[in-house]
Design brief:
The protein is an alpha+beta fold. Helix content is 38%, strand content 17%.
Length: 739
């Protein structure tokens, strides 16, 4: 046996995943088939993955994010869209600084090493990125514009510096934003967070709370789950405000806030936050001494149980309009940063107020004991302004110079970037302040000796504009202006885990600001974000911290990238977590081997039919034609709804149908093979987004033209053009499609 028959027999005998995957990764690179080209004749599709923090090798959570994104990118290309698919390396940050110190190397050396390792792993996974549009936040060409953005926000009054009670991690020696505190502990090291008063830099997120909350419900491309969580994060709280005068202190007025659902109840006390500025004038020295430990109490303890600490000030507050008198308590559970920092206790309506009243023996008025207070309508938001300064060295330097004569002076645009100094191994705590010579500067205004700001920016600030940098690729003529982003923005589909969805609030905030600056034509920079859940092992999220990781490299080495991709995609649709299992991995392997054996066994006859005359258009479609058309339609519907597990289930069903047809045809040598050949082509084409390496090899075996990555998507049911993106692809997700 020789020629095509021999090749088919040899292919059927074995599948060498390593060789096939390396072959097609090289072919894709040589062909440049994933390079994005904006073309007015094509609908643009900007497909973006939330990038990794390069603190080691890729983990399975990364694999899930990037594989989900890659399927979407490949599918859209096959539908004829002009696709830009890319991500950023979120390369600054404290974890790499600490890890580098532990290894005795510089943070940049460790970061670059990890980026190289992750890049290699991404290529092995078959991810179809346009690498010309991948950016790295620690490159001076990138953080120059991060610093520029900081200064532009400051010009608009959206960046300020002030002393405040802040979250402090004693292990990491740095401040933390509220979104970086998880159940009272540091997001990175799980150390209980303390409170410290420091002068720091903030971004005024709160000014945009109303518009971001009101516009969120119109974001139909965001899944309901994402919208609900983001609304909870913004914390829109309608209610009433009331003015109280303190008896014996007529010069002091306390404005209290009550939620709308409580105001019809009868009030029993006034609760003031420990950090409220009016307390300095109201408390005795003894009471002030009692307040200090309450302010310094660890936030971890507050998260562990309802914070019912407090004390009776002995003061009485009188409501200005009704004359209602209420005792005044200091209460640790009242947040000084929310609303007015003063709450009205309604024990009959609010369970926490009832617990506080019981603990402190506050007399509670009966429900019908008089008319409710009368106040003015007010709406407050729980989201806080964004703390963006950090006391570390491996980060974007804040471009401010402190001059005794001129005050806070921005570094001129032509002098950007303020470069990260060369960091030596084993840096002492203290960040850039501990780097010899960094702080010494000359005032840009008066030329006198001055001090450079030594805090660096939170890495959240580094990535808040990353998708814009990726859209442009930071070309040499980049100016952070509208024309730099016109080809690709807004992002059409953003892929990231639900554990990072609070980034979305920051992206939306920046979109609003840049729209006001005429940099972006639309205020919403991202059209569609569904989010996906985690990868679990034995019911617990895979994490280096938990020590329960499975190495993607080890799986690829043993089974191949396509098997890993299919397992992660088939185990559950994105809104559910994926439970890692060997059984699921073996199921994915069996599916791909079934495809391989079926197609290679019949590759010759499929190639033979490729040159046959087209079937008469008036002819009645065969049952197999109908089955293939139904499979193509169903897979397309599942892809549009972001339900990839359902796609693979349909592909498996088509394999069974084709195997049955192959058995039938083996007993009828003279029967026409056109429908069967078309079904095989349909199968290989639909497999391409999910197992791209095997699909390319099989496409070549059956005589497919060019690359299957460039083949048209088989919408056989209607031959209609590709459907537009649904307004809410997550609406009505049927997780039952995931077996």
């Amino acid at each position: 046996m020789s020629g095509p028959d021999a090749r088919a027999a040899a292919a059927t005998a074995s599948y060498d995943a390593a060789a096939v995957e390396a072959k097609w990764q090289a072919r894709w690179a040589d062909a440049g088939c994933f390079k994005a080209t904006a073309d007015e004749r094509q609908r643009k599709f900007f497909n973006f993955d939330g990038g990794p923090f390069p603190n080691g090798a890729l983990h399975m959570g990364h694999v899930r994010t990037f594989t989900l994104g890659d399927v979407m990118a490949r599918y859209r290309r096959m539908c004829g869209d002009a696709v830009l698919y890319c991500f950023e390396f979120d390369a600054f940050g404290l974890p790499n600084e600490l890890a580098a110190n532990a290894l005795g190397i510089a943070p940049e050396e460790l970061t670059r090493r990890n980026i190289a390792q992750m890049t290699r792993q991404m290529i092995r996974l078959g991810l179809s990125y346009d690498w010309d549009h991948v950016v790295t936040t620690c490159d001076p060409a990138y953080y120059r514009w991060t610093q520029w953005l900081f200064l532009k926000l400051r010009e608009r009054g959206l960046v300020y510096r002030m002393p405040a009670e802040l979250n402090w991690c004693p292990s990491c020696h740095t401040t933390l934003a509220h979104m970086q505190v998880d159940d009272g502990c540091c997001w990175r090291c799980d150390t209980p967070v303390e409170s410290r008063k420091l002068t720091q830099w903030f971004v005024a997120l709160g000014r945009y709370s109303a518009i971001l909350s009101d516009s969120l419900e119109r974001m139909e491309g965001f899944s309901p789950r994402v919208r609900n969580v983001l609304q909870g994060f913004i914390g829109k709280t309608p209610g009433l405000e009331f003015d109280f005068v303190i008896r014996g202190h007529p010069e002091v007025t306390l404005t209290a806030f009550a939620r709308a659902e409580y105001v019809d109840a009868v009030p029993s006390y006034l609760a003031v936050a420990p950090g409220h500025p009016a307390l300095a004038d109201l408390l005795t020295r003894t009471q002030a001494d009692a307040l200090r430990p309450m302010n310094q109490r660890r936030r971890a303890q507050a998260a562990a149980q309802p914070p019912l600490d407090g004390f009776d000030t002995g003061l009485e507050a009188v409501e200005a309009h009704t004359g209602v008198r209420l005792p005044v308590f200091v209460a640790r559970h009242v947040d000084p940063a929310f609303a007015t920092g003063v709450e009205i206790g309604y024990p009959a309506a609010d369970p926490r107020a009832r617990q506080f009243a019981e603990r402190h023996k506050i007399a509670c008025a009966p429900p019908n004991a008089g008319s409710p207070l009368k106040g003015r309508p007010a709406t407050h938001y729980r989201v806080r302004d964004w703390l963006v300064s950090r006391q570390r060295a491996w980060g974007t330097p804040i471009p401010i110079v402190h001059c005794e004569a001129c005050g806070e002076v921005p570094v001129p645009e032509q002098a950007l970037p303020v470069r990260v100094p060369i960091l030596t191994p084993n840096l002492p705590p203290g960040g850039l302040a501990a780097v010899p010579g960094f702080a010494a500067a000359q005032c840009p205004c008066c030329g006198k000796p001055a001090r450079r700001e030594t805090d660096t920016l939170d890495c959240y600030f580094d990535v808040v504009w990353c998708f814009l940098a990726c859209a442009n690729g930071l070309k040499p003529d980049f100016k952070f202006q509208a024309s730099d982003f016109a080809d690709w923005t807004p992002v059409d589909w953003f892929h990231n885990g639900l554990d990072s969805l609070f980034y979305m609030h920051l992206y939306r905030f920046l979109g609003q600001v840049l729209h006001e600056m005429a940099v972006l034509p639309e205020p919403e920079p991202i059209r569609c974000y569904i989010g996906h859940d985690a990868v679990l092992l034995d019911g617990r999220k895979m994490s280096k911290h938990h020590g329960n990781v499975v190495s993607p490299d080890a799986v690829i080495e043993k089974e191949g990238a396509d098997v890993l991709r299919v397992h992660v995609l088939w185990s559950a649709n994105p809104l559910k977590s994926v439970e890692w299992s060997q059984a699921g991995l073996q199921r994915a392997k069996r599916l791909l081997l079934d495809v391989w054996k079926l197609v290679t066994r019949h590759a010759l006859e499929v190639r033979t039919t490729a040159d046959a005359p087209p079937m008469d258009a008036s002819a009645q479609p065969s049952p197999l034609d109908k089955a293939a058309a139904r499979a193509a339609r169903r897979v397309t519907e599942f892809l549009e709804r972001y339900q990839y597990a359902g796609c693979l289930q349909e592909i498996q069903t088509l394999i069974v149908r084709l195997e049955a047809e192959a058995e039938r045809l083996s007993n009828r040598p003279s029967a026409p093979r056109d429908s069967f050949a078309n079904g095989i082509r349909c199968l290989v084409t639909m497999l391409a987004p999910f197992a791209p390496h095997m699909a390319e090899e099989l496409w070549e075996e059956i005589g497919g033209k060019d690359l299957v990555a460039r083949a048209p998507w088989p919408i056989l049911a209607t031959d209609a053009p590709h459907a537009a993106m649904p307004k809410n692809p997550a609406r009505g997700q049927r997780e039952a499609a995931a077996p």
